[in-house]
Structure formats: structure tokens, C-alpha cells
TrEMBL record, chain A:
<keyword id="KW-0479">Metal-binding</keyword>
<keyword id="KW-0411">Iron-sulfur</keyword>
<dbReference type="GO" id="GO:0009055">
    <property type="term" value="F:electron transfer activity"/>
</dbReference>
<dbReference type="GO" id="GO:0051538">
    <property type="term" value="F:3 iron, 4 sulfur cluster binding"/>
</dbReference>
<keyword id="KW-0813">Transport</keyword>
<dbReference type="GO" id="GO:0005506">
    <property type="term" value="F:iron ion binding"/>
</dbReference>
<dbReference type="InterPro" id="IPR001080">
    <property type="entry name" value="3Fe4S_ferredoxin"/>
</dbReference>
<keyword id="KW-0003">3Fe-4S</keyword>
<comment type="function">
    <text>Ferredoxins are iron-sulfur proteins that transfer electrons in a wide variety of metabolic reactions.</text>
</comment>
From TrEMBL, chain B:
<dbReference type="Pfam" id="PF14759">
    <property type="entry name" value="Reductase_C"/>
</dbReference>
<dbReference type="InterPro" id="IPR023753">
    <property type="entry name" value="FAD/NAD-binding_dom"/>
</dbReference>
<feature type="domain" description="Reductase C-terminal">
    <location>
        <begin position="320"/>
        <end position="394"/>
    </location>
</feature>
<keyword id="KW-0560">Oxidoreductase</keyword>
<dbReference type="GO" id="GO:0005737">
    <property type="term" value="C:cytoplasm"/>
</dbReference>
<dbReference type="GO" id="GO:0051213">
    <property type="term" value="F:dioxygenase activity"/>
</dbReference>
<feature type="domain" description="FAD/NAD(P)-binding">
    <location>
        <begin position="3"/>
        <end position="299"/>
    </location>
</feature>
<keyword id="KW-0274">FAD</keyword>
<dbReference type="InterPro" id="IPR028202">
    <property type="entry name" value="Reductase_C"/>
</dbReference>
């Protein structure tokens, strides 16, 4: 299954990913992204990738 | 096979071509850009890139390899000069003509030029070329004068001062950021400059700029003159819509379009990013905004609507913009400028500022929020705004965040 990863160093807490897919992304008290799941079903991939592309610092990746 | 031409190769254009593919569009996709550069991102140009912390690789939005993988043809280095809507053609400066079934206009905005023509030393910040030139200008040891105390001006001031320059920011408004966040919060933004040793001359205009790079004089309306090695002018942006003057499209401070990002009376012409003046159904009015996230969101809507014309999506976002100034990460959601008043949770003074200002109208509706160094609060307010919550809800939920107690 495609796997979602986050570059926690790069994340700046802009929060765009969370607005795009709040069931997949969250943010911790320090303003760093938290992945609520990393296994992304193929049928969900487009939506999760779309939210990933809304990240201003390109911190999120969906890979096979 | 159907062809989509996307004109403008910054974030709105690049996200459009990416979203076309992820929305399943299999036809031909051409991305046209005036600049010969591979697409790059703008927000870092006044921040990490200007500071020298990030290089050009770090701000690339698209590489040639990635474009090939997406099967996107790049036509960089040749501006679009004319759009023929009825004939479905875009005419480029190099004389070539691209036919299309749908076209996406993403030519963005340009920095309003300096009204004071001098030979050298006066900069704007919009393109990578601009940012490189300013970066070189900041290598001069002498003082820097920033004209315009809005977001870009404030960011440039913060970056220049971190590079060790003596900086003065001039603006005719008494509280430039106050226009967006209200006068009271605006004072804190002015204080932020002062805390970092940057001088402000707010409420004062610029009469003239004379001299050359390294030896400039900025004459102010109050009769004083500031010496400067480098001057930066950040006085806003105007939409790049001149090339559309003969297109027959409704062009009025940007290209007017409907809630589906389609130009008025031209449904195969879609408009995204800073160029679009679209109808926001939630607000019941046409808006043009110059925010990164709006460029990305509108690109996704436009791409979807091209790929799935039977299932049109509406572009009705909650406004969102961020800015990094000194040690503040500032995030603004909604429309604080329209609010009657606000309430502050946390503190904006001292070296460990962390706060959220919640904006409301006389009916107690939540209209917007400004957060400083508190992303969690931003995410919360952004969600509540989308859900139509009251300001009281927002304040109660903010108070329940663990960091609220630390901040208070
Ligand atoms: C220095 C700076 C800092 C910023 N910081 C922030 C921030 O912190 N947060 C935030 O939310 N927003 C910020 N913004 C705003 C954000 O970058 C813009 O909203 C965003 O870039 C808009 O994207 P766009 O693609 O619509 O337009 P633009 O970025 O303006 O890009 C338009 C592109 O079209 C090209 N073009 C123009 N005319 C033609 C033509 N005739 N033919 C072909 N190509 C053409 C241009 O060369 C350019 O590449 C900042 C902007 C700047 C300049
Ligand atoms: S959009 Fe990017 S920067 Fe923002 S919270 Fe998500 S991962 Fe972090």
C-alpha cells in the first residue's frame, strides 16, 4: 500500500495539509505535523496527495 | 486529443498541471512561462532565500524530470502576448501559437514599480531575479531603507536586519499592518520592529529617492532625509492582466470569473491564483487575493473542473496567509479587517510571544483569527471558521489547548 511520510524538520506548522485531509494529518502542540495514518489505500491516494501538495515547504510524500 | 494550456509558471500554474494529472486528465498539457527559469516559489524570496539560508534548488516548484514524468510540456522563456478566446489560441512572444480546448490563466501579479526612477540601488521583490539583485544589494554595509511597512516590507526589514544591516521602514500609514489586523494588534507589529532594533517612520511618506547604489538619499514628507546604501520598495502588487486587454474577457483588477474559476462568458477559460477576481459564494462578492494557499486551492478547483465538467467544484475558501517576521510566525485566517473587535489569548510581548487574537462582529460570529507562534491555535480557528462557529466557541476551545495555559 502507498506510504505517507513527513519531514518533521522541514514542517513549519502552516497547517494546510490538515485543512485538506483532517483525518490523515494533525498538528502537535509545538506546531509540527502528526500523521494519523501512514498506510494510504490506493483509492484515497489522490486526496491525500492533493493535501500534501498544499504544503508550502514540500514536507509530505506519498510513495509506493 | 484534448489540450490544456496553462499560462504562468509559478505556484498557481504548476499546481494546476500537477492537479490535472492527479484528477485523471490524460490529454496534452502545456505550461507556458515568461521567465526562462524553472518554476520557483515566491514566499521564500523575502525570507529564507533572501537570508541566504535556502538556495534555488530548495525553492523549485518543478524540475524538468518531474515535468517529463507528468507528461507536461514546458514552454519557458516566452511570454504569452495575446489570447484569442473564440479561436482557442494563445500567441506567444516568440511568434508561436498554441491551440487549446481549455486554457488556464495563471500570470499572477507584478510588484508595483518604484515611483522614483534612479539608476541603481532601488529594489522590488517579486521574482527570483529581483531577489538575487536585492541579496547582492544587501551585501553593501550601509543602511537599508524599506518603503512600505506591509507584509513584504516587514519581512525584508527582518531579513536585512538579521544580516546585520541598519534598517528603517517608512510608510505613510500610522500602522501599516493594522490595516489587516486592526490598530491595536498593529501596534504590536510595530513594536516587533523596534524590539529588533529596526526604526520605523510610520505616518510619513516618501518625497523622492536620489543617488546610486551605495549612496542613496530618501527624502521624506516631514522634511528629513535618510541616507541609504540600498532601498527596497514594497508597495503592493498589480495583476499581470495587460496581455489580456484584447481578449474580450472582463478584466477589472484581475480577470473576473465565477465560483468555479471560469471566466465570465468564457467557460473554457479558467483563472487561478493572484490574477483571478472570482465570485466567492460564501462571501457573496468578487475577490482577488494574493495568498499562496489561495493560488494552490484555486488551481485544484480549476483542474478538477476541467477534468470533470459534469461535477463542478466551487472555490469558496477560508482566507489564509502566513508571514515570518523576526521571531514571529504569523498566521491569519478569515477576514479580521472586517471585524468589530477582537479578544486576545496569550501574550504578544517579550521574547516568547505566543498568542491568538479572535475577531468577531456585533453578533458574536467568528470572522477571523491572527496567531503568533501558535500553529495549533491557527489550525483550530481555521477549522471553526470553516464550520461557521461563534467567537465564544473559538475562545473556549483555545482556552482548552495545553499551550494556552503556558502562554497566559
Ligand atoms: C516576496 C514574496 C513573499 C510572499 N510571502 C507570502 C507568504 O508568506 N504567505 C503567503 O500566503 N503568500 C505570500 N506571497 C504571495 C504568494 O507568493 C502569491 O500569492 C503567489 O505567488 C501567487 O501565485 P501565482 O502563480 O498566482 O502568481 P505569481 O507568483 O505572480 O506567478 C505568475 C507567473 O506568471 C508569469 N507570467 C506573467 N505574465 C506572463 C505572461 N504574459 N506569459 C507567461 N507567463 C507570465 C510570471 O513570470 C510568474 O512566473 C508572497 C509573495 C512574494 C512576492
Ligand atoms: S502543510 Fe506542511 S508545513 Fe504545514 S503542517 Fe502540514 S506538513 Fe507542516
Amino acid at each position: 500500500m502507498p506510504r505517507l511520510t513527513a519531514d518533521h524538520e522541514a514542517c513549519q506548522g502552516y497547517g494546510n495539509c490538515i485543512t485538506g485531509a483532517p483525518d490523515v494529518y494533525d498538528i502537535d502542540d509545538d506546531g509540527v505535523v502528526v500523521l494519523l495514518t501512514q498506510e494510504i489505500p490506493e483509492g484515497d491516494r489522490a486526496r491525500v496527495e492533493e493535501a500534501a501538495r498544499s504544503c508550502p515547504v514540500d514536507a509530505l510524500r506519498v510513495e509506493d | 486529443m484534448s489540450t490544456v494550456v496553462v499560462v504562468g509558471s509559478s505556484v498557481a500554474g504548476v499546481r494546476t498541471v500537477q492537479a490535472l494529472r492527479s484528477e485523471g486528465f490524460t490529454g496534452r498539457v502545456v505550461l507556458v512561462g515568461a521567465e526562462p527559469e524553472l518554476p520557483y516559489d515566491k514566499p521564500p524570496l523575502s525570507k529564507q532565500f533572501l537570508a541566504g539560508a535556502w538556495d534555488t534548488d530548495r525553492i523549485r516548484l518543478l524540475t524538468a524530470e518531474r515535468a517529463a514524468e507528468l507528461d507536461v510540456e514546458l514552454r519557458l522563456g516566452s511570454a504569452a502576448e495575446r489570447l484569442d478566446v473564440a479561436g482557442r489560441q494563445v500567441h506567444l512572444a516568440d511568434g508561436s501559437v498554441l491551440g487549446f480546448d481549455a486554457v488556464v490563466l495563471a500570470t499572477g501579479a507584478a510588484a508595483r514599480p518604484s515611483p522614483w526612477p534612479v539608476e541603481s540601488g532601488v529594489h522590488v521583490v517579486r521574482s527570483l531575479t529581483d531577489a538575487r539583485a536585492l541579496r547582492a544589494g544587501l551585501d553593501h554595509e550601509g543602511p537599508v531603507v524599506v518603503v512600505g511597512g506591509g507584509f513584504i516590507g516587514a519581512e525584508v526589514a527582518a531579513t536585512a536586519s538579521a544580516l546585520g544591516r541598519a534598517v528603517t521602514v517608512v510608510d505613510p500609514l500610522p500602522s501599516p499592518i493594522g490595516r489587516v489586523v486592526g490598530a491595536e494588534l498593529g501596534e504590536h507589529f510595530t513594536g516587533l520592529h523596534h524590539r529588533h532594533g529596526v526604526v520605523t517612520r510610520f505616518g510619513t511618506g516618501v518625497e523622492s529617492v536620489t543617488g546610486v547604489a551605495g549612496d542613496l538619499a530618501v527624502a521624506l514628507t516631514d522634511g528629513t532625509t535618510l541616507p541609504a546604501a540600498t532601498v527596497v520598495v514594497g508597495i503592493g502588487a498589480t495583476p499581470n492582466d495587460g496581455w489580456l486587454a484584447t481578449s474580450g474577457l472582463l478584466v477589472e483588477n484581475g480577470v473576473t470569473c465565477d465560483e468555479h474559476c471560469r471566466a465570465v462568458d468564457a467557460p473554457d477559460v479558467l483563472v487561478v491564483g493572484d490574477l483571478a477576481r472570482w465570485y466567492h459564494p460564501g462571501h457573496g462578492e468578487h475577490l482577488r487575493v494574493e495568498h499562496w494557499t489561495n493560488a494552490v486551492d484555486s488551481a485544484v478547483v480549476a483542474a478538477h473542473n476541467i477534468a470533470h465538467p459534469d461535477d463542478l467544484r466551487t472555490h469558496a475558501p477560508v482566507e489564509y496567509v502566513w508571514s515570518d517576521q523576526y521571531d514571529w510566525r504569523i498566521q491569519i485566517v478569515g477576514r479580521p479587517a472586517r471585524a468589530a473587535r477582537h479578544e486576545l489569548v496569550g501574550s504578544l510581548t517579550g521574547d516568547a510571544a505566543r498568542a491568538a487574537a479572535v475577531y468577531t462582529d456585533d453578533e458574536g460570529r467568528l470572522l477571523g483569527a491572527v496567531t503568533v507562534n501558535w500553529p495549533k491555535a491557527l489550525v483550530l480557528c481555521r477549522r471553526l471558521l470553516g464550520a461557521g462557529a461563534t467567537a465564544a466557541d473559538a475562545l473556549a476551545q483555545l482556552a482548552a489547548l495545553p499551550a494556552a495555559r503556558v502562554a497566559a
